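Milestone M4 deliverable, item 7.
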Amino acid sequence: MPATEPISGRPDRVAVEFATTDPDHAQSYLTSAYDATMTINGDRRTYRFRHVRLGGGAFHLDTLEHLAATEYRCGPVAAVVVGRVHRGMRTDLDLDEKFGPGDLGLHAHADRPYHVRQECVLESVVSLPPEAVSDAARNHPDGPPPALNFTTMRPVHPADTLRWLHVVDYATSSLLAAPDFITRPLLVGPFTRLLAATLLTTFPNTCGPEPRPHDRTDATETTLARATAYLDANADLDITAVDLARAARVTVRAVQLAFRRHLGTTPTAYLRAVRLGRAHQQLRDAVPGDGTTVTGVAARWGYADPRRFTASYRRAYGRPPSDTLRR
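Output delivered:
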């Protein structure tokens, strides 16, 4: 079976698939896919490899299947990678760590190459940019990002594993539901940050932000006013917690405390409500024949799943968005 071409080379598609029986082809493909030098050794008579990538732009959700016993060496990988074995056995030979069906394993050492043996492995992999994980742990917007320092390659508690799997399933279903996902910054950015934040709560680490003495005293109405003004003016942009803290001239923690103290909500919930209002206005302003659809409006304002958008819209306005569009 020769290597197959990607499902689509269009930049507005999220899925790419590759398959081969040639270890050399697999080696070249994986070197490119993971931006790291890859060397694969396996029995050419039995070698089978398949790779499916759902690309969210800043993050990737991959499925890799090796239908043979293989051993490979990989140069340093810049991404933070979480793998889950579904079938077979994966062994990190440098650390003598074995991962079997159901196990989660973390690779977050950008300066470390690794040497792995795989025995008929089916594995799903999530790759995130290190800066996204660092930013998820950042408090001061203009200070240095926290160093990524994980104390173990595995989750400690089963509940942490289940939470990670739930978030990955949610991201996967959202990508599949929105073929133009990677062209929507309001989808890509929040999902990247959700995965990064969940990773930090799944694998024990020392990356957490240190509280600053003025976090509580800076959670003032003035801070809230600056933050809400920024969100109101820029709801169409992909806004991070660091962006908002910088606009409010305080720390991430101070902004969160200000919203909780003075509005009884979170910055994320406030921004979601603003965007829902913009979606409502876009539906009201639509005219017959202009191409406006509920699905398109939902994705425009950060909803990958139109059903979630419809549920939120109905709670806020007492009717489905389709009714507003038809009026």
